[in-house]
Amino acid sequence: MREKLRRRERKLYNGTKFVICMSVGCGLLLIFMIGFMYFGAEKISFADLWNGLFHFDEGNFNHVVVRDMRLPRLLADIMVGVSLSVAGAVMQGNTKNPMADSGIMGISSGSIFAVVFMMIFLPDASRLERIGYSCLGAGISTMMIYLVAFIGKKGITPERMVLSGMAISTLFSSITSGIVLKEGLTSEMLKYTAGSSANAIWMDVSVSAPFFLAGFALALMISRSLTVMNLGDDVSKGLGANTAIIKLSSTLVVLVLSAIAVIIIGPVGYVGLMVPHIVRHFVGTDYRLVLPSCAVLGALFVVVVDLIARIMIAPLEFPVGILITMIGVPFFIFVSRRQRGDAFGG
Amino acid sequence: MKKHGVIFLLVLCVAFMSFLGACKTEDKKENYETVPILEDVRPEEEKMNTFTDLNGNEVTYNMNTRRIVALSGAGDLVAFGIRPLAVSGSTTTSGYESFFKGVDLLDYNTPFNAEEILSYKPELILVYQNMEQDNIDKLTKIAPVIPLYRESFDFEVRLGYIGEIFGLEENAETLIEYAEQVKEAQLAKIEGMGIKDKTVSIFYYAQGVSIPPTDSWYFNKIIYDYLGMKRLPIAEEFLENADNPFTPISNESLRNYEGDIVIYADLSAAGLEPEIPEILQTNPGWKTLTAVRENRVGVIDATLYTEKDVLYLQAQYDGIIKAFEKATAK
Questions:
Q1: Are B205 and A69 an interchain contact pair (Cβ–Cβ within 8 Å)?
Q2: Is A317 in CB contact (< 8 Å) with chain B?
Q3: Which residue range forms the structural domain that includes residue A301?
């Protein structure tokens, strides 16, 4: 009875923290979105900002800055932040690996390889086809990661998954470099060498949006099942969960969202590692609370970092991917050390 | 399972390698031979010579040798009529095939492969101006090494030096005169077009739009120094900061860098017809440029300007003039 009461209390406590996390996150996101639209290399007034959004005049340069440069870039950042953090959280839940992230695990490298491959050998492919190839590359790399991690007596363990992911990531990066060396680097491919949303256009956003929304919706739909899965395969089967379907759906979510992020911004790692860890610290391990929180905080994180990247050396651009990596690497080391501590009971 | 996994990976890698091997290279542009065709008039017999190179080192070598490997200056050498055994693989030979007939392209340039160079049994190795002394020492064990001027824009210095190395001073004179004539003719064209005092903005695309650094690209020297065109003060300022080159300019500020004439330097044309890539055509900052809206952006093949050799001079000027014509079309 006491245990039941304690669990109920914890649930309520996490629920309260979720509401606070979402309220504060959404509030901050809104503030930074306005800041993102207002600040930049060119100074614009609030009147221009308003008119650029709601009374657009093609002949007014400031309106063009607002509607055709800052707004699609903001939306791209939000989509990438949501995609990577939700994909990271789902991946961590699905593999029970706290170090999982689409960038670290090599899934993004697979996507990049597929897109570069397509650009060279199928140069006339549309942007929609590019998303398909990006997903295909992500799928192949995921299969290979599992395959390599599975080899050996111990089978799949979180550490082996990370090592396997890093190996596959290196393999795909090397093959991509080989192809580029052989065929030459085109301007289009440069986007996939360092993550940057500086040149995001409406077409990137509009083509990716349906896939992004579908991936995100599917993630929310399986959030309860992911929470159950966290109790272990045997327990979740005992509770009537179809683990195979859940794992397949989770993998699909990760592939689509990771591929979308690659298409929009190029390679960006660590968002999927950092955000879910921070979120779980606040709202616990219930994925019905984790995933929406990840979406809000992931979007907030990428928007804030890109805002810094835009104004730190203005009127020049600093690639947001590099800035995120600079933040992500120390975090990765911190998490690795903590995992090691946990493993030894620390 | 382990065995199957490894086999799967191996098969995958082999498949990729086979695919890469099968990749075809596209045909490049037609012949471009306007430089005076000179002959190597050196006698066949050995003539040892001691020469003080541009670094002040004394080198003793056979000045009549045909057994030459050149890691630099291939375009200058073949213009002299000299046919080395092998030249740097990065040489822009497209359109100049007849000049390079019987001349191998080295697979390795920077870093060079000593074994590959040794396989040609050279009697003289010509290297680039800034080669480290350690590497020169390594190559000296194979054959005498003479560095050539690579960074200098002065044809009198570059070509006079090569003429002196091989005793082909007359050929050097002819080529120096040719270079001067080409420059004068292009200057006259610029005068005729009435654009001499115009400001020219050159952009390239890498992760965003930026301005190509002055020293790295020969077209900067031709446009701003030889042809006397002007650069916008904001662009000068951009290039003065050593950290800036290769950093993209914000799309929002790009129009501040637009001069009277806008040139796009295509870094990936590699001998093919240069063009503005799709990713740039859809770039919102690029679309704010007046020249873009009026469809008058000149395009040059940047790869043609990586070498300053006299062989490519006419093609380099022609590329620029053609771009100017497009950029100033009404």
A1: no
A2: yes
A3: 77-193+202-338
Reduce the DSSP state of residue B209 to 3 states and report it.
strand
Superfamily of domain B194-327: Nitrogenase molybdenum iron protein domain (3.40.50.1980)
3-state secondary structure of B262: strand
Q: Reduce the secondary structure of B41-106 to three states and give it as a string.
A: CCCCCCCEEEEECCCCCEEEEECCCCCEEECCCHHHHHHHCCCCCEECCCCCCCCCHHHHCCCEEC
How many structural domains compose chain A? 1
Q: Domain for residue A156, yes or no?
A: yes
Query: pLDDT digit of tens for each residue in chain B (330 aa)?
Result: 454 554 455 455 445 544 443 443 344 444 555 778 788 889 999 999 999 999 899 999 999 999 999 999 899 999 999 999 999 866 555 677 778 888 998 888 778 899 999 999 999 999 988 899 999 999 999 999 999 998 777 899 999 999 999 999 999 999 999 999 998 999 999 888 888 889 999 999 888 899 988 777 889 989 998 888 999 999 999 888 866 667 889 999 999 999 999 999 998 776 678 889 888 998 999 999 999 999 999 999 988 888 888 988 898 999 999 999 999 987
- Please count the other Cβ atoms lying within 10 Å of the Cβ belonging to residue A128: 11
Domain annotation covers residue A222? yes
Around Cβ B15, how many Cβ atoms within 10 Å?
10
Length reported for chain A: 346
- CB < 8 Å from A in window 279-308 of B: 279-280, 282-285, 287-288
Minimum distance, in Å, between the CA of residue A28 and any CA atom of chain B: 25
Distance from CA of A216 to the nearest CA of B (A): 28
Q: Please indicate whether, in this complex, the C-beta atoms of B1 and A151 are within 8 angstroms of each other.
A: yes
CATH number of B48-177: 3.40.50.1980
The secondary element (H helix, E strand) that includes residue A281 is helix A271-283
Domain limits, chain B:
48-177, 194-327
What are the b/e assignments for A324-343, b being 16+ CB within 10 Å?
bbeebeeebeebeeebeeee
CA dist A89 to A86, A252, B315, Å? 5, 13, 56
